[in-house]
Amino acid sequence: MNKPNLKGVTPENTVGILMLVIALINAVLQMFGYHTLPFKESDVSETVSAVFLILTTLYNMYKNRNFTTASQKAQEITNAIKSGELLISDVDNILSNCKNRNHSIQKGGTSL
């Protein structure tokens, strides 16, 4: 299992995860009868809580949350491709070279 790399976590990722945690806590409190939102009618409070939970869950599913070093590096590569700094063919060549080198090492050959 990959360990989280908290140095590379952006403020946007942190806020998104915190909103999701708040929404989950709010939903659990609602299930136990604690109305955390300042509404008198429980139907309105439960509806707002459910909408908040659904929206934060969908938003966090949509966003790419990069918490591991590998995922953060992959995001850097993706950003470089999108900005035109790196071509997809360059990435394909790098991956091909890595696969060939690993295959050679596994067969007992030497790598360059």
Low-confidence stretches: none
- N→C terminal distance: 30 Å
Average pLDDT taken over every residue: 81
Task: Compute the CA-based radius of gyration.
Answer: 22 Å
Largest sheet: none
Number of helices: 4
> Judging from the principal axes of the Cα atoms, what is the shape?
elongated
Helical percentage: 55-70%
Q: Structural class of the helix and strand makeup?
A: mainly alpha
What order do the helices and strands follow?
Answer: HHHH
- State which percent range the strand residues make up: under 5%
The tally of beta strands, per DSSP, is 0
Q: What's this model, at a glance?
A:
Helix content is 68%, strand content 0%. With 112 residues, the chain is mainly α.
Summarize the SSE layout with pairings.
Layout: H1 11-31, H2 42-62, H3 69-83, H4 88-106
